[in-house]
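Fold these two proteins, one after the other.
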Amino acid sequence: MAFITLDSVKLKENYDWLNDLFVKKNIKWTVVSKLLCGNKKFLEQLILLGVKSLCDSRVSNLRMIKTLAPGIETIYIKPPPKSYIDKVVMYADISMNTEYKTIKWLSEEAKKQNKLHKIIIMIEMGELREGVMRDDFMEFYKKVFELPNIEVVGIGTNFTCLSGVLPNEDKLIQLSLYRQLVEARFQKKIPLVSGGASVTIPLIFNDSLPSGINHFRVGETLFLGTDVYNGEDMESLNTDVFCLYAEIIELIEKPMVPTGELGTNLEGDHIEFDSDNSGKTSYRAIIDLGLLDVDESHIKPKDKRIEFVGASSDMLVVDLGENNQDYKIGDLLSFKLDYVGALRLLGSKYIDKKVINS
């Protein structure tokens, strides 16, 4: 079975570096744990770091977090569906919202459970994913403030996850001003301005983060060490907290060009082959990993001499050239992951998960 490892030492180094950064800037931050897909072993590693706040997009994952550490603050990080309102109130201390009707349901359920449910209201700042339209924002707040068992603790926004809109100083100043407008009009204190995410971190370094932004939601930079804004690695962080390993289950010298009439492959694609390779052979390895687990475009062999040939549902083929590396059946190939690759693999029940250096 292919497996993915989490290096607890490298994770701690990344966490400590980010925590020091945010503490120095007087910024509260929440770790986005949805990448871990509720894996108990991996969540335990986060808890051991001393994480105070975790946010996730799955109720089952929040339930696992509360089971492991009831005192950790939990945030449901997308607009709650009606069918999960009771569980959101039960397992999330805070939820992010954009619909008045949904907040009304949360209010009613919080009353049933004798709880005060906290919410962050998301505002649309151009990314066109979740968010109340800016023209409707003040009236939206007015209605929400009248609901019982609901406490508005923040205003937030999202960047880059759908349309790729980047955060900038102007947009984040606008977000901060909406907080000021709400507080002035309704005489209500709004503690959090949640305008920060992994993609916003570089704004701290070039002094373009407005002082009003006091809450970050960070996952990718913590786990993968990426500078999301510039699409590159962060020099101060480990980029290999996660590593994928897959076993070679076949290794045979084969022709580089298939023979026979060609149709479409599993994904419906017509594959073209370089005619210059006709008559040539190379060593090809099949590994126990496939499209069911991950797309090859989201993983990268650590051995740069290895090239991908293609993938089917449960097998991935790589070209080893003349196999000067002397790979054999049963050997493990290792791969670096990007965010989507890690997300797919961690969500696959067919991929084993292991903690190393714990």
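Now the second one:
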Amino acid sequence: MTRFAGAVIGMAAVALVVAYLAFGWPVLLLGGPLLVGIAITLLALALTERPREVLRERRAAHLGESPWKQAAERGEPSAGGLMSGFFEVSPQAAGLPEQRPALAHDARRAAARRP
């Protein structure tokens, strides 16, 4: 995580320097606050990563492995979940209804003229 944050801040700083060299000092009015915003966002992410990891470990110890992971390891579809049934095909009638070809343009005119 630290390496990733350093790489992101480094790339943002290099982009700011290149923009400064290309366009001059007005770039700093927008680029400076953006660089600070990136640093604050990454700091917040780094500070919340450890509590999320502890929560993930506690849930894994309390609940064991998830039923979805167990089903995937056995090679069978899971019985439920967030999107269960969403992609299932609903039961259809045994046969398709009779489909007749559409009338040709001239046949439509003739059918419309008929009394």
